[in-house]
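Cross-posted from the bioinformatics board.
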Amino acid sequence: MKHTWMRAVGIAIAVGIAALLGGCWDNRDIDHRSLPVVMGVSLSKDKYEVVLQIPETSSKGVNLRILKQKGRTINQAVDKISERMESSVDLLHLKVILVEKGYAQQGLTDSIASFMRSRDISPKTIVAICDEKLDPFFDYVKKSMTPRGTTLYDCFEKNAGWNPQMSLTRIWEVYRSIHSYTRDVAIPIIKSGRNGTIDYLGSAIIKNGRMVDQITPEETLLFNSFNGHSAQGKIEVMDKASVMILRSSMRHRSKIVQGTPYLYVQITVKVSIVETKGSVTSQSINQELEKILMKRFSGMLRKSQTREADILGLGQYFRNKIPRTQLRVWRESYLPKLRMDFRIKSIIQNDGYTKLS
Amino acid sequence: MNQQIQKLRDQFSENDDFFMLQDSFLGTPVVLLGLKSLIDVVPMKLSLQTYHAAAIESHITLDAFKKVLGEADEAVGAHEIYGSILNGKLFIYFEADDSFVIMDPIPRALNRSIETPINENVMQGSQSAFTEDIATNVGLVRKQLQSDHLRVHTHTIGTEEAKDVALVYYEGRADMDFIRRIERQFAQNKNKTIENLQQFSKEILGFPTWSMVSKFNQTELPQEAAHSLRKGRVLLFVDRLPLALVTPGMLWDAFCLDSDRNFPLPLMLFLRTVRVLGALATLILPGLYVALVSVNPEVLRIEMALSIAQTRAGVPYPAIIEIIFMFVVIELTIEASFRLPKTIGPTITMVGGIILGQAAVQAKLVSNLLIIILAATTIANSTIIGLQQSLALRISKYVVVVLASMFGVLGILEGMLLICGYLGSLTAYGIPFVGFPNAKSEANRG
Amino acid sequence: MDKSWQVALMYFIVHLGLIFFMYPGDIIASTQDGHWIPIVLGFALHLAALSLYLKGLFNWGNNDIIALYMKAGKGYAVLFLLPLAVYFFMACITVVRCSAEIMTIVMLSSTPLWAVMLTFLLIPTYFALKGITSIFRTGVLIGMMNVPIILFFFSFSFQNIDWRYVFPMIGKASFLTEPSYLESFFVFAGGFLFLGFIQPHVAFRKRYVILAAIALLPFFIFSVYIPLLTFGQSTASTFNFPFIVSLDTISITWLMFERITVFLLLSLISFLMLFLSLSLWSTMRIVHAGIPALKPRYLLVSIPVLVYVVCLAIPSWTDIVKLFWWNTYLRFYIMAAIPLSTYFLASRSKKRMVRS
């Protein structure tokens, strides 16, 4: 009997301690946290300006709240915002980091490294560049976008508003490009549109964390398909017709002759015809398509070679041919010399419901 | 009047259902003693007369007639006589030679007939359930399992208050060490009184009291009982308890029913998977709510995080208080629905479940999502087999919830680890609770 | 009763728990290319040590190595068992401190470290108090719950890889002298020693354990190669826990959860707790053999208390790394000396038995 009582008292004490411990450190409930979805960062005169877009939940629905602060570091600015809010700011759910173009041109290396380091910000967060001042952009977003909380992020989500002309680059990819010898990335550039839309201007070529050039949305499409992201469902406009790319596949061969890298790439595109203008034959469409894609690709390659930024990850194909010590200088000494034999083969998989005359 | 009879009469003097009748058999006067509440007197006398008439016709001696009536043991002491009267036997005293016979008379019908199970539902299986009478129960098992390997040992336990206990096992499949161990426990604790199963398991079998999981798996169904016999387990019947106690209890009992095997194999597997999922959901869901809401919101998707935050907006206390509060309400509802007559039970459930829940949400006392979690948990809790197991599950989810409120998702894991560790540590006379009954019986056989 | 598959499962999951934290980082830091060479070399050494150890154990028969050394003489016992106890103790400290640190980095930013470490010790202590057979049964339950989770997320971790990062395949042998490579042997040395202690309580067959060890090879390889193939060597070498970071880059759109790292991490932690409980139990056995006056129950409570105190005294991550490095000498001594001595002592006693 005594034993039983001891047991009961023991359990009661354990439960009591557990209850006390529960209050020992502050775990804030989800409704007392502000979860910003978009963060804008710009740098002027050695001071970071941080803009947070915070969906504010109430029982009626979601309101967007835009808050700005300046600070010596990004974190300081965030803390300042947190101080001024009634609930604390957690960057746990940050989905998009929007960088002002000027800051991107100066170099993002430090910020990206600290984003990777911090446990709050997920490495999956999307990075984008804003081609105007952050203030007007966010004002525009607040004014024009339906208050759903995640709207801006939805533009980039693969199963929502994303389209294959948009490059989709996450923090960890940017971080990788900073350290990697053979790979750079492209970051989408956006701008406020007119009628409540966000305009997509193309992609920035980022080399070692700095924006060095820009490619057009059409080139980005090619970039995406080259890198194996689905370019599916995209409508490609030509003089005579527009087609939808259904699938694309790639074959490549690489070799190095006397220090000059040679790369042979063949991309096979399967398309379906959506719209035609005048009389066209499938042959002419094929020719046209191949010509256009060739032109775009060589344009992009030229940009990449002159800027010594390997957004296509061409160096990846030579990793087994060049020793590691030489890979280090791939961008400077090999990439500009790269000879590329690029072929595009298009196949019209079907012409829709109607016959092509 | 003999001294022994006098003593018996004194002992029963405070009992109005005690009867003492004078009669005469083959010319000798006899006294019949017994309890009216246990013996149906009129048919008893009629049957005695039939015996008597037959005896006169066949001209047998008095001694032979005594043998016909029942056991005529001279050596039986006063205490045993007293016990057998309490047990519903008829005591016949022959005044002439100071001898007596204890006879099995026609008893009063104090047992209900075999009915369908009340606390367990059977899908496509045998519908008869155990009753209070121990002999009936053993008979039901014998009907279910017609084998010459079936062994039944009956013990009467307790001196002050007697109780019959039957031990049934399948010879050749059951672990004989285990049975010897139980028999030894019975022999050792023969004189202890058992009023309930708690005492039975502690005093007689020596199992620890503070065990969350009972060492017996209880079943009302002869089919399940027979199945566990075949699996090498031991059945214990306690008189007046309409249950078979299957020992050692095993974890898998909570998920596997023998009547599942009446379904095709894929359906059976599906049913069992659902039960396992139910148990896991009961343990994890409430903890997950607490962990995700108060400690680790980053694990949620942003859309869900926002909608949860929205439903929680205005709830004045932390998630752990919220969930414990609602769980207490649910526990009260469940307990109340046990207590209430079947006719008003559903009304209370309705008031408790629907109206109270809805009102609590509208009054902003709890969040919508919590009500969903609560309902899912309560439903999932009932998927596992056995009332006791489901109760143990109901309690153990609090461990997970409390730990989750402190350590978030890690707390859920810690709670699950503790539960696993606890289950892993349970044994009954060396047979682990977490084991495969099949493997053991095979190991035993070969 | 034969519990081979329980032992094999335990062996498997204990190693899984150890692999994914420090090992990838150490291997990636040890060489710039051809990472498979150090992995396979380490694995081969591990397999050799394991099979020697098992051979010794089975020559010795149905008893544990404490009895073996005790029989061989007090000197042997001090020479081998004392370092072993110290090693187990150190392993407990590093594992508790490391995993608690990782937990606070990854998911529990506001929970104090002492509380996390406390639970990381309380649960294994509870397991160990319940006895070795109970640890193994618990291991089976935990394995059934968590191995599917691990396999699920492990298979998803291939999402972002680029196979071309495999090249160059051939590297230099310079990794042999790298401190981080020597540290990586923590994975190999820690896990197999418990086999020598369980024997009279839990019987098992050799083959199962060897099979479990071989089944681990893909996990060793991919724990290193997944971060390498996702990030490339030069990026991966900047991380403290490359595998965990590379897991963080995975997105599964249909899953209702966002940071799936948490789930994999939790499963690993549960395996580590089993490792801790085994280590605590083995340490208890050694100390108990040395000082039989101390009751096992009290030892099992006091050893974790000691571990906890030491863990509290370690102020920072760099100190853990330092501790890890000091441990290296002991680790190699243990890894070489215990299997060899077990083998020789056991075969000697077997010969003697045959002769007499």
